[in-house]
Specification:
This protein has 438 residues and is an alpha+beta fold. The protein has six helices and 17 strands. The relative contact order is 0.21. The protein binds calcium ion (2 copies). The site of one calcium ion has 8 residues, from loops.
């Protein structure tokens, strides 16, 4: 049967809602991304006796400014201009800028305590990733959008100790009656031309493959699961009973923002997230240091074994698949799971060339809020926000984005079973050096 699908890129930290006719009896969709994260498509290939191309790349028009063709053309022009700007010569010294020391602010301005949050002092640090770190991943491209390194200053702020859990999200839904995007039936307005039977609520779920596969086609291990949502992570027959302390998943950007507002918080900026994730360290590969497994210990829930093969996730780190929060030691600021477990939404729009733009500016860049528009050459029409930290599916075979400084991204209305979030909160009070939330 033709179906409504959501596509995610790479290991799914990236993606755009896509309509396609899915299911083994109809065919498949392939050719989105080649090595290095560059575009080779999209190429839609449908096989079978009922071969039928029903699909078009589409985003939720209600949330995307470029749904109108004229707007889309205008945005493309803006994006193209920005790319030209970003590819202008950069001072060679900037390109080879090394990580500098982290100079944290004095924490004395902190006022009181916030339940479940820790104070991140803010200060000046080096943000981004060294291109040489690419060598730690068998699949190239992990550092492409995370270089060059640049100096950033962020004000102090509060950060959730953990990813937002099912227990916390349930309190929010109980109090507000909020319905996540994954629980809503997609509308024909959003996906014009889609057959009515394809418009079924659901979300994207990782599905291991029967055997080894070419890692160039991530659609082999992702499926659109009808009626999958935060309450039913693997589909309608699954439940979160007993998983109260697991991170909430199947939440898209606007779901995360809605939760944050209810909680009197906000999403962190990408710069805040990285400052917090580094835990006071400077230029280290991981949120705890430069060794992935110091003294043989695992310090994050990632993926060990053959990816993405059935039974391949051997759980050497203690967990096959997603884990409850707080299973590993916190980083230097007391934050848990800043690497792995689930990807975390940040508030910044995603541009692949944003850091190339920043490195030309006077350093340090103060409290960067992300670019004004989104642009990902892999999916030029998708509006994306930055995600950070990697997930339980990240592996040195494919996606080492549990490495500090690396970047993920996701289409704003797309959810999946390895993306969640945590909240930030600006400081308030007479001694605060921090701007208030807006
Ligand atoms: Ca694991
Ligand atoms: Ca995480």
């Amino acid at each position: 049967m033709p179906g409504f699908g959501i596509m995610t890129n790479r290991d799914g930290g990236d993606g755009a809602r896509v309509l396609f006719s899915f299911g083994r009896e109809v065919g498949w969709l392939m050719g989105q991304v080649n090595r290095g994260g560059r575009v080779s498509g999209p190429i839609f290939v449908f096989l079978g006796s009922a071969a039928l191309l029903i699909a078009a790349l589409s985003q939720r028009s209600s949330s995307t400014p470029n749904a109108d063709p004229e707007d889309a053309a205008a945005e493309q022009t803006v994006a193209a201009d920005a790319v030209v700007e970003a590819t202008a010569p950069i001072d060679p010294d900037r390109l080879t800028m090394a990580f500098g020391a982290t100079a944290a602010n004095d924490s004395a301005s902190r006022q009181g305590q916030v339940q479940g949050m820790v104070w991140i002092p803010g200060g000046e640090f080096s943000m981004g990733m060294n291109q040489a770190a690419e060598s730690l991943c068998s699949y190239p491209g992990v550092a492409v959008d995370a270089a060059p390194i640049h100096r950033v200053y962020v004000d102090g702020f509060w950060m959730d100790e953990t990813e937002v859990t099912n227990r916390q999200f349930a309190e929010f839904v109980e109090a507000t009656g909020y319905v996540t995007v994954a629980e809503q039936t997609p509308s024909a307005d959003e996906f014009p031309g889609a057959p009515p039977e394809a418009l079924v609520d659901g979300s994207t779920v990782f599905t291991p493959t029967a055997g080894e596969v070419d890692l160039d086609n991530h659609l082999q291990w992702w499926r659109y699961e009808k009626h999958a949502n935060w309450r039913h992570p693997e589909g309608p027959d699954s439940t979160i009973a007993g998983r109260e302390d697991f991170p909430v998943i199947h939440v898209c950007y606007e779901d995360a923002v809605a939760y944050c507002k209810w909680a009197g918080k906000r999403l962190p900026t990408e710069a805040e997230w990285e400052f917090a994730g580094r835990g006071g360290l400077a230029g280290q590969l991981y949120s705890w240091g430069n060794e992935l497994n110091p003294n043989g210990a695992y310090l994050a829930n990632t993926y060990q074994g053959d990816f993405p093969v059935e039974g391949g996730d051997n759980g050497a780190d203690g967990h096959s698949g997603i884990a409850p929060v707080r299973q590993y030691a916190p980083n230097g600021y007391g934050l848990y799971d800043m690497a792995g477990n689930v990807w975390e939404w940040t508030n910044d729009l995603y541009r692949h060339d944003y850091y190339q733009t920043l490195v030309k500016l006077e350093q340090p860049i103060r409290n960067p809020q992300g670019p004004d528009s989104s642009y990902d050459p892999v999916e030029p029409n998708a509006v994306k926000r930055v995600q950070r930290g990697g997930s339980f599916l990240c592996s040195d075979l494919y996606c080492t984005r549990y490495m500090m400084g690396s970047r993920g991204k996701g289409e704003v209305r797309t959810s999946s079973n390895h993306v969640g979030f945590r909240c930030a909160k600006s400081a308030t009070g007479p001694n605060s050096t921090t701007a208030s939330d807006d």
